[in-house]
TrEMBL record:
Classification via InterPro entries: Glyas_Bleomycin-R_OHBP_Dase, Glyas_Fos-R_dOase_dom, HTH_11, NAD(P)-bd_dom_sf, VOC_core, WH-like_DNA-bd_sf, WH_DNA-bd_sf, WYL_dom
Protein keywords: Membrane, Mitochondrion, Mitochondrion outer membrane
Domain VOC, first and last residues per copy: 448-565
Name of the protein described by the UniProt record: VOC domain-containing protein
Bilayer topology annotation: Peripheral membrane protein
Keyword Nucleotidyltransferase found: no
Record PROSITE patterns: VOC (PS51819), WYL (PS52050)
Source organism, top-level taxon: Eukaryota
Family membership: Belongs to the FMP52 family.
SUPFAM superfamilies: Glyoxalase/Bleomycin resistance protein/Dihydroxybiphenyl dioxygenase, NAD(P)-binding Rossmann-fold domains, Winged helix' DNA-binding domain
Pfam families named in the record: Glyoxalase, HTH_11, WYL
GO CC annotations on file: mitochondrial outer membrane
Record carries keyword Mitochondrion: yes
Length: 573
């Protein structure tokens, strides 16, 4: 039985089960019919809150549970608990009564029934209650963030995936991104093997990634040093990976090597597309700073590892090469990496700049695009001092440092406005253009939010909401607090309190976050974007004595006012 077949991981598990000859039939209960029929598939459509006592379809050997939601999708904590805890537990009891011997759960990193984080606590409670049922074989798969394309977009998770894609090398292994097919593969293998006892499968993608880069056996000590873990932890991780099905050859004192196998799904790209990927990755490995170059080499090793043997040999002997770069000697790698990371994290940058005439200036900018050219890399940014877009050659930048606060406007918005203002096609920055005509109109919005501390019922839910509307991540977040830095000394703090009640209209002014933008058109655009995000709007756009404005409401009922100053008022103060 497969629960959650309509989800990201469940969909991959369903495809793998239907294709696996070891599985004779799949029962996939769902609340709506699955689109594609199959000879091995039985799809009872049910009300999960009212399961039948002993249906014929409930006679199975094993259960895979990939059922899950988010608080935002479920609509409330109570609904989330029902979907992520009560429903899986009810199916588990039903399956056990009908003779099921194995249960594999797609849980989460950090699952703990005593966690102060609601999401982790619910996952931990489910694990605890499944243990109490005493399945002969129980497997708990605990991935970090799940990588892949969902049919239903989770905005907060999508943003986190983008950020973690940049920060992955410095994060704990448990919180790295795990591709959905790999998670599904671990679940499927667990129930088909049905090894007695309890088995916990954590996120170990980094160890696999390191092993893929090496063609020959690597000493355990060298692997442990590269991963920053102890030898004891390494040996434990290797044994767990072997239990998951990874073909790891070697032993302590000799070295380890990952043989080609099906730990990752095989690539089905045609030869020309693989050649294009290889050439692009080799360009990145040859022309960028060490961190990004290493990521390109990792990706190339990952592709080679899952290719058929004949294509792997052709890849190794490929004649597609990249010549030497002329930028390596002019831009220090540390400077290039600092700028690239600031673009990825949307942090303000401060640096000294010398233009073509030798004039020096100090700049604070909002970096949003970095162009790699044969002559020199160039940065596109909004310059606070010039109040306009500027392009900066990285070989003329000195003393660069990322400031602790993040700029407010989403990077994608800056990019679109820059393209429109400059008349430059997407993904193109001509290093010969220099600064654009100063006579062009300035249409960039300057946000001035109030510095505010807001009490919220759930920090995780509210932080996800504000990530969506602000387009930036909190600089600090714990189970009870989150802090957003929004530029020019402005800050928004979220503090969790269990007794928070939604404010009524008469009280709402005491908990109002104001955002000042440059014109009425920007007010209207933000209104449309917020509606698209599902924000509740309590006041439609209207022109009042102080300017054009509208009001939205956050998950706790706090008012969010966006307005442009009326004509004749000072635009910035």
């Amino acid at each position: 039985m497969l629960l959650g077949a309509t989800g990201l991981v469940g969909g991959h598990a369903l495809s793998q089960l239907l294709a696996d000859p070891r599985c004779s039939a799949v029962v996939a209960p769902s609340r709506r019919s699955l689109a594609a029929p199959h000879g091995k598939l039985h799809n009872p459509v049910l009300d999960f809150a009212r399961l039948p006592d002993a249906p014929d379809w409930a006679r199975m050997d094993a259960v895979i549970c990939a059922l899950g939601s988010t608080i935002a999708q479920a609509g409330s904590r109570e609904a989330f608990h029902r979907i992520d805890h009560d429903y899986p537990l009810a199916f588990a009891r039903l399956a056990l009564a009908q003779g099921a011997q194995a249960f594999a759960l797609n849980s989460a990193a950090g699952a703990n029934p005593r966690s102060s984080i609601f999401y982790s606590r619910v996952k931990g409670e489910l694990e605890r209650d499944l243990r109490a049922l005493r399945f002969p074989s129980l497997t708990l798969v605990r991935p970090g963030l799940i990588g892949g394309e969902r049919q239903a977009v989770r905005r907060g998770e999508h943003f986190a995936l983008q950020v973690l894609g940049v920060l992955g090398p410095v994060l704990p292994r448990a919180w790295r991104i795990n591709p959905a097919p790999e998670i599904a593969h671990a679940l499927v293998d667990a129930v088909l093997a049905a090894k007695p006892g309890e088995h916990v499968v954590p996120s170990r993608d980094l160890l696999l990634q390191v092993l893929r880069r090496h063609r020959r056996p690597v000493a355990g000590q060298a692997l442990a040093e590269e991963l920053g873990i102890s030898l004891r932890t390494l040996y434990r991780d290797i044994e767990t990976l072997r239990e998951q099905g990874a073909d790891l050859r070697g032993e302590a004192g000799v070295g380890y090597q990952l043989e080609p196998g099906d730990v990752l799904p095989p690539l089905t790209l045609p030869p020309a597309e693989i050649d294009a990927l290889v050439l692009g990755l080799r360009w990145v490995a040859a022309r960028t700073e060490p961190a990004l170059a290493e990521a390109a080499r990792d990706a190339l090793a990952r592709i080679a590892h899952v290719l058929p043997a004949a294509r792997r040999e052709a890849l190794r002997d490929s004649g597609l090469r990249v010549g030497p770069s002329r930028t390596a000697a002019t831009v220090p790698p540390a400077r290039l990496q600092a700028v690239r990371e600031a673009v990825g994290t949307q942090q303000r940058l401060q640096f000294a700049y010398e233009d073509a005439q030798g004039r020096r200036s100090e700049r604070v900018v909002w970096p949003f695009a970095l162009g790699y050219f044969d002559e020199v890399p160039m940065l596109a940014a909004w310059c606070e001092g010039r109040e306009d877009f500027r392009h900066f050659r990285l070989d003329r930048i000195r003393r660069v440092r990322a400031l602790p606060d993040h700029y407010l406007v989403p990077r994608a918005t800056l990019l679109r406005r820059w393209q429109k203002a400059q008349g430059i096609a997407p993904d193109w920055l001509d290093p010969g253009q220099g600064h654009h005509d100063r006579s062009q109109p300035r249409s960039f919005p300057m946000f001035k939010p109030s510095t505010l501390l807001q009490y919220v019922r759930d920090v995780a839910t509210s932080a996800t909401f504000y990530r969506g509307i602000l387009g930036t991540a909190p600089v600090e977040q714990s189970p009870g607090f989150a802090l957003f830095l929004l530029g020019d000394g402005a800050a928004l703090g979220l503090w969790q309190r269990d007794d928070v009640q939604p404010p009524v209209d008469a009280q709402a002014g005491a908990a109002e976050l104001a955002m000042v933008v440059v014109d009425a058109a920007t007010v209207q655009r933000m209104h449309d974007e917020w509606r698209g995000l599902g924000v509740r709007i309590t006041q439609a756009p209207v022109t009042l004595e102080f300017g054009h404005t509208f009001v939205g409401v956050d998950p706790d009922g706090h008012r969010l006012r966006v307005y442009s100053r009326a004509e004749g008022m000072v635009a910035r103060d």
